[in-house]
Structures are given as structure tokens and as C-alpha cells.
Amino acid sequence: MELKAKQEGDIEKIDKFTGYQLPNKFKIVGLVLFITSILSIITSLKLYMLDIKYHELFERIALSGSVLGLLIISISREKIEDELIGKIRMQSYNYAVIVTVLIYLILPFIHFTIESIFSSMSKIEGSKDVSVLGVLLMSQIFTFRKLKKAYNEE
């Protein structure tokens, strides 16, 4: 009995975290943040040309703001949120993760190939954010296994 209660608690915790959505009104907030950040990135390019000291910090803040805006849009509810919308949302997240991982894995080789064509001193450089993908995939695998175990033993 104690094991079943623990499993139900695990399922409830994960459902609470993964099922969290912002109200539909936040789509506008996310869009405004995203557009503002994109405009800031364009401004950041002008600062780079003027050799401003904090250009990199400004650019990082703008890039983070754009990703945060997209995240807000992504986790905001639709006007009509039903089971079909939930299924479509999960399918789109699955697709997005797979495509992102593949692009991150392939892009360094494409960059190396293009650089080899135009330069005699080419070297392969991967993305510095690959650890984020590792954390993303590990959290998905651990969550999947925990939920699978909890649902199979009920």
C-alpha cells in the first residue's frame, strides 16, 4: 500500500509540473517580449559596430529574452484547451526536441565542410550548449522511466 501511495505521489508531482500552463493572455506577453528582444539584438549589432564595452552582455540578455518569450508562448493555453490540443502540444514538443538534437549534432559537420571549402585552416567546432541537450534528454528519459514504472505497477 505504501509503494502505491508513493507511486501516486510521483505521478501527481510530475503531472503538476508538466501540466502547468499559463493563461491564454500570456501569449501576447510572450510575443511582445520576443519582438522586443529581436529588436534589441538588432540594436546590439549596432553597438558591436560602435565597439561598446558591454555588447556581449547586452546580446546575451536579448537572446535570453527572445527564448523566454518563445517559452511563454509555448506554455500558454489555447482559447479552447481540450484533449486534442494536449495531444498536438505533446507531439509538437516531441518533434521539436528530436529536430533540435539532430540539428545540434549535424551543424558542426556542415560548418566544418563549408569552412574546409573556403579556408585552408579549418577546424571542427561544436556548439557550446550541447550540455543543455544532454540535460534535456536525461530529464526526459528519467521522467519517462519513473512514470512508466508508476503507471505499470498500479
Give a written overview of the molecule.
The structure is a single chain. The protein is an all-alpha fold and 154 residues long. The protein has 2 domains: 1-20 and 80-154, no CATH class; 22-76. The protein has helices at 2-18, 26-49, 55-74, 83-118, 130-152. Helix 1 crosses helix 5 (130-152). The longest helix has 36 residues, at 83-118. It starts with a helix and ends with a helix.
Please provide a brief summary of the model:
This is DUF2975 domain-containing protein. The protein is an all-alpha fold and 154 residues long. The chain has five helices and no strands.
Break the fold down into its secondary structure elements and pairings.
Blueprint: H1 2-18, H2 26-49, H3 55-74, H4 83-118, H5 130-152
Protein name: DUF2975 domain-containing protein
Keywords: Membrane, Transmembrane, Transmembrane helix
Transmembrane segments: 26-45, 95-114
| Multimerization status | single chain
Separate helix tally: 5
**% residues in beta strands:** under 5%
Cα-atom radius of gyration: 21 Å
- Written as H for each helix and E for each strand, in order along the chain, the element string is HHHHH
Overall body shape: extended
Count of distinct strands: 0
Query: For the residues shown, what is the average pLDDT?
Result: 81
Question: What is the end-to-end distance?
Answer: 10 Å
Largest sheet: none
Please tag this protein with its features:
DUF2975 domain-containing protein; 154 residues; mainly alpha; membrane; single chain; 78% helix
